[in-house]
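Project standup — Tuesday

K.O.: blocked on the structure for the chain from last sprint. Re-posting the sequence here as requested.
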Amino acid sequence: MAQDPLLTPFTLKHLTLKNRLMMTSHEPAYPEDGMPKARYRAYHEERARAGIALTMTAGSASVAKDSPPVFNNILAYRDEVVPWLSELTDACHEHGTAVMIQLTHLGRRTRWDKADWLPAVSASHRREAAHRAFPKRVEDWDIARLIQDYADAAERMQAAGLDGIELQAYGHLMDQFWSPLTNTLEGPYGGSLENRLRFTMEVLSAIRARVGSEFIVGVRYTGDECLSGGLDASDGLEVSRLLRDSGQVDFLNVVRGHIDTDAGLTDVIPIQGMASAPHLDFAGQIREAMDFPTFHGAKIQDIATARHAIATGKVDMVGMTRAHMADPHIVRKLMAGQEETIRPCVGANYCLDRIYQGGSAYCIHNAATGRELEQPHDITPAEVTRKVVIIGAGPAGLEAARVAGERGHQVVVLEAADQPGGQIRLTAQSERRREMIGIIDWRISRCEALGVEMRYNVFAEAEDVLAEQPDVVIVATGGYPEEDMPQVGSELVVSSWDILSGHVTPGRNVLLFDDAGDHAALQAAEMIANSGARLEMMTPDRTFAPEIMAMNLVPYMRSLQRLAVTFTPTYRLGSVTRSEDGQLIAHIGSDYLDDAVSQGKGTGAYADQRLVDQVVVNYGARPMEDLYFELKPHSRNGGAVDYDALIAGLAQPVDGPSPEHTERAAEGSFQLYRIGDAVATRNTHAAIHDALRLMKVV
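H.V.: unblocked you, prediction finished:
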């Protein structure tokens, strides 16, 4: 392993980074009141403890009050940030990990109705599509105070003991000056490229005047906006040269693209189904041309690609941020020769999509990430081993099996199908989402290593479970599509699952009604449209697929719009009947219309109708719960969950949480719990979180 390029040190100025792996600047939205407190510290310390060389906090920390975060970012313009960052830095330094932070002013990439209700500011009045604010065009006095804001923030970071800072210049204020698309200024800050970079150079000079020449300063910037009329690759090379030759910058961190739209952002930070490491060669070209320390990270999610990036000299440090959210212990496992045990990033982008909707970043299949204060990344063996029987080998069941196996229990998994995966295996039928199967493959691999017994083609009945004489039973049977909707004509429709599984062939003229707003509908839509069918996709919601967040929606929309799919929001499928010639009549209502019209009771019946040869519906799923209720009378706890104990990370009471379970407990022989979609339809992360926090103390 000593020969592994990823494990060789790299010297940046006076700082020796112990290997070539880093987390690029990112904001998981864990601050409290704009401060990186215990939760934030624990997240970074976990990765430091496992051996990562450099962790970059904040994506990005705001330097000024007129740059209000659009999600929960660190507020670098407040003095009280210093002690919190100092604690984080000291914690990481104890493990030999360097710490830096990204500073920014968002410019137009925010809103005026956040925080102190100050106007957004930019180098033009042009609105950013993503955040919709029309900015004030910057004045001379704005420039003076903004330069001071940057310098003040940098001084705070140095006072906190960080190893360096990085200035953000893609989609934010700094490169809004750079790009001719967003700079309409005249005079010293507009016109030529050198003028457009003047603000950046003055910020760098002011920072150096505060922090001195030894403190590390870098820039993360776009080397090509990939927009007509914007900065192109030749401009990016010149920007790189000007930054390098300024003498103020110690490293370049290169990205490619623009982030002012959901589509642009997704191209900069690709998700599953998109090319891996799409900008690595571009970063390598800048590294070769500049002969200067260069960092890069964009969907470098596997060790082989990261190793290639370093071995071929394309970059000096490789960013594996989302990969370290999936598995914080990548470096430790590499050093131990356990590369095959690394939990893979499957590119689902649940982490980033959540923060852009105002939530905290969570990994779709590592429920401990972001919960380091509550949930373990390493499972503690149990003091007393027990027999655990799990019904269902989907994500919930397999996570329960993995954790129980790590605890040292005897584990048996009963699965009705001939292979594991549950709904994820159905999801992975779509080529663009096939990486999701990594969630299952990794758990199966771990279960095999832990001696978990897997039994397939077993449609478990209560007597089968009781015959195992279990101490604990986990029902993880998942869900099945809602079958009785619409109320009139349900026998004439097929489900999105029917299409995804291949059990039903797409028709030629199809109406797809989506009442759940999840992946199943859009995946089915892609399959139908790709078959050459004419497709109308209808939803009662005001927007499409509200459960699919912004970046995941982008590839779907690109595909479906190219295939000329018709999208109809705010209308509801009321009923389906058959015409005299055998066609299907879909009767359409709306929640916005008079009730009588909407329900087909008025003189005009429904609001509208469609004549099609196939109606596909997506109403979500209902729990497969029959087995649970059959087992419930035989259990000690009656299936009850003590929520207070669950939230606190404590073991469940053996006999249930309340006195009324006493009589049952005397007769029951095992504890019974259900998890995942067997409880209620949620998502993959919720199912895995259920399993982890329950089983870690069983």
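K.O.: great, moving the ticket to review. Residues 140-159 form the longest helix (20 residues). The mean pLDDT is 95.
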